[in-house]
Amino acid sequence: MDPDDLAIGIIAGLLEARTGQRLTEDRRWRIAPALSGLFRERGISSHQDLVVLLTQPDESSLAQDVVEALLNNETYFFRDRGVFDYISDTLLPRLASARAKTKKLSIWSVGCSTGQETLSLAMMFAEQGKRWDGWEIEILGTDVSSSVLEFAREATYSNFQIQRGLSVAQMLANFTETSEGWKAHYKLRDQVRYEVHNVLHPAPYPGRFDLILCRNVLLYFDNAVRDRAFSRLSEALSEGGRLVLGGGETVLGRSGWFVPDEERQAVYVHGPAAGSASKCASAA
After folding, report:
1. Do 56 and 109 belong to one domain?
2. Minimal CB count within 10 Å: which of 30, 77, 153, 210?
3. Same domain, yes or no, for 113 and 49?
4. Which residues lie across from 260 on neighbouring strands?
5. Is 16 exposed, middle or buried (0-12, 13-18, 19+ CB in 10 A)?
6. What phi and psi values does residue 241 have, to the nearest 5 degrees?
7. CA–CA separation, 36 vs 69, rounded Å?
8. Are the C-beta atoms of 65 and 139 separated by less than 8 Å?
9. Same-domain check for residues 93 and 126
10. Segments forming the whole domain that contains residue 23
């Protein structure tokens, strides 16, 4: 095997070991451009040199930098607007009715990247105003990358980023233009909390969440890893909670704890009833 191909395979293996994401042969072209900035910063000249450095006992930070450089952090405000419309118009009223006694609602954004998804949720609650008076709303954003979470906590976006998915009215109502960019108002930032977390690890707060958005996170997992992720998501959801996946993702055939929402693709209902329904379908 060509030494460079071998080195690239080792780098791809590092990403899979740390995150579960598999870089298949046809996607390994991403490695060179993704690591180019890191190579310049560290004075690394080749993939082989990088692999040698990764074997050194004092280079754990380099391994994390490599993983973070390889992650796809593509996101924007109200990404796939139809999903947010469905959450706003259908899911939240149902969850509000189910949680009317406690007036508590917990939402988890998995793979939240630089924070646009979590802030979109916060804006959605702000826009609904009086409906949520007296409610305790928790929005948790998690990601395996500590650097993107630092960006998310800062919540300051460039002109390009702020215009992706937001109207001018939403920009002016929720952000202030500063010398560094457009910064989210404190009220929005205060509603969102961020933690480093890998969806393959035990759920951060078992049984706590009424709604989980895990969109386009599982695309590059193999079936066994995807099953582990669904198990963790099931641990985190409350009974009757909803799981929202990306448009190209599904739990069908992979999990016994979710059944499809009859009204919307890529939305699933969680609970023992879902598990029983799945087992009956499998027996049939």
Report:
1. no
2. 30
3. no
4. 268
5. middle
6. -70, 165
7. 9
8. no
9. yes
10. 3-70
Cα(62)–Cα(30) distance, integer angstroms: 18
- In what side-by-side order are the strands of the sheet with 267-270? 192-196, 136-143, 104-110, 209-214, 237-245, 267-270, 258-260
The structure tokens listed for 122 are: 């916060």
Residue appearing with tokens 């979710």: 258
Which residue from 67, 68, 191 is spatially nearest to 121, judged by alpha carbons?
A: 191
CB 211 within 8 A of CB 87: yes
Distance in angstroms (rounded) separating the CA atoms of residues 29 and 23:
9
Which residues 6+ apart lie within 8 Å of 70 measured at CB? 11, 15, 23, 30, 31, 34, 35
- Residue 71, CB half-sphere, CA atoms under 13 Å: how many? 25
Element of type H or E holding 182: strand 182-184
Last residue of a domain, one of 12, 46, 70: 70
Q: What's the rounded Cα separation, in Å, for the pair 273 and 203?
A: 21
Of 44, 70, 96, the last residue of a domain is: 70
Length of the chain: 284
Q: What is the CA radius of gyration of the chain?
A: 20
The pLDDT of residue 57 is: 80
Question: Judging by DSSP bridges, how do beta strands 175-177 and 192-196 pair with one another?
Answer: unpaired
Residue 206 is predicted with a pLDDT of 93
Task: Report the amino acid identity of residue 268.
Answer: Y
Q: How many domains does the chain have?
A: 2
Provide the residue-wise pLDDT of the chain in tens; the chain has 284 residues. Answer: 577 889 999 999 999 999 999 988 888 999 999 999 999 999 999 999 999 999 888 767 899 999 999 998 889 999 999 999 999 999 999 999 999 999 999 999 999 999 999 999 999 999 998 889 999 999 999 999 999 999 999 999 999 999 999 999 999 999 999 999 999 999 999 999 999 999 999 999 999 999 999 999 999 899 999 999 999 999 999 988 999 999 888 887 776 788 888 889 899 998 654 443 333 333 32
